[in-house]
Design a protein that fits this description.
Number of helices: 14
Number of strands: 0
Shape: globular
Oligomer: single chain
Structural class: mainly alpha
Distance between the termini: 25 Å
Largest sheet: none
Strand content: under 5%
Radius of gyration: 20 Å
Helix content: over 70%
Length: about 300
């Protein structure tokens, strides 16, 4: 569970770095974080022997393994794009709650594939989601956010994108976990690399085309301080959590991994409280504790060995 906790905590730092960068548009920030993380991933892979990141293949050749890896990378790339634009178009509270439904999709996938689900997984998810719902309802009201501040079309598209992000994350976690359990080739470092490369390729034309048409440099507003925070965003909020997400998806049940991921907005709020002075009330802290209690309940399930023969 350590990888999952690290993933959730590191992803929580995204909002802090984005606010500190300043002067860049959403497309510039997304592409910048992808390119920096991609460079780090290349350096990381260069320093590793790739064989140590794989398990032996049981059925299927190299071509099949490559196709599987590219498919997994595509899921995570689309997750990043959908989640970012979901936050951009819809209220933060709405997008965050919809993305927090990832464990629900994981549970539904497992139910459809007739896998056994412990009652604590359902109960833990429900408690965590109620805690987040109450927390975001209070936070959004206190900050003056309202659904009415967004057009109906933007709210609908943003909400659908956020919901798609939740589904994509659930599919990725379940697919990677299932492939590893079957003993198939799972090269997590290449998956990480290809996720970041696909994101860069998708967003590079979006950034460069308007700049070419206008004749203005695409990053003309980025100063030295902004560059430093952009580097931090790429390293600590993109490359490392993406790697931790892959490792966690291999090691623990996808439902548990995604339930732990529901702590990301709570960690982000605590970071904003400590670093940006965004205050928290006793009520909001109580909501956080309820969500954390749900995450704890979800972890209280028997080990896989205990389920055999029952």
């Amino acid at each position: 569970m350590l990888y999952s906790l690290l993933c959730a905590t590191l992803w929580a730092s995204t909002g802090i770095f984005v606010k500190l960068i300043g002067g860049l548009g959403v497309n510039q920030i997304i592409l910048g974080r992808f390119l920096i993380a991609l460079a780090l991933s290349l350096l990381f892979i260069r320093g590793l022997r790739l064989a140590s990141a794989q398990r032996a293949v049981k059925g299927g050749g190299k071509g099949k393994a490559n196709a599987r890896r590219l498919g997994l990378a595509s899921l995570m790339t689309l997750y990043y794009v959908c989640a970012t634009y979901g936050f951009y178009l819809a209220p933060v509270s709405v997008a965050a709650l919809l993305i927090a439904l990832a464990p629900l999709f994981t549970l539904l996938i497992r139910a459809l594939t007739k896998q056994r689900i412990h009652r604590n997984e359902w109960l833990g998810f429900a408690l965590a989601f109620v805690g987040l719902l109450l927390y975001f309802r209070t936070s959004a009201t206190g900050a003056g956010f309202s659904v009415a501040d967004h057009t109906g079309q933007a709210l609908l598209i943003g909400g659908l994108l956020a919901l798609a992000a939740a589904l994509l994350r659930a599919l990725f976690s379940h697919a990677l976990w299932s492939a590893y359990r079957r003993g198939e080739t799972v090269d997590i470092h290449r998956i990480n690399l290809e996720t970041l490369a696909l994101g860069s390729l998708l967003l590079l034309p979006v950034l460069l085309l308007p700049a070419l048409l206008s004749g203005a440099p695409p990053l003309q507003q980025l100063n030295a301080s902004g560059l430093l925070w952009l580097l931090a965003l790429g390293a600590f909020s993109t490359f490392l959590p993406n790697l931790m997400n892959n490792l966690a998806s291999l090691k623990i049940d996808p439902t548990l991994h995604n339930v732990i991921g529901m702590s990301t907005p709570l960690s982000a709020s605590l970071m904003a409280w400590a670093l940006l002075g965004e205050t928290q009330t006793v009520y909001s802290i109580g909501c956080m504790l309820l969500a954390l209690a749900g995450i704890y309940v979800a972890t209280r399930i028997p080990p896989p060995a205990a389920k055999i023969g029952t």
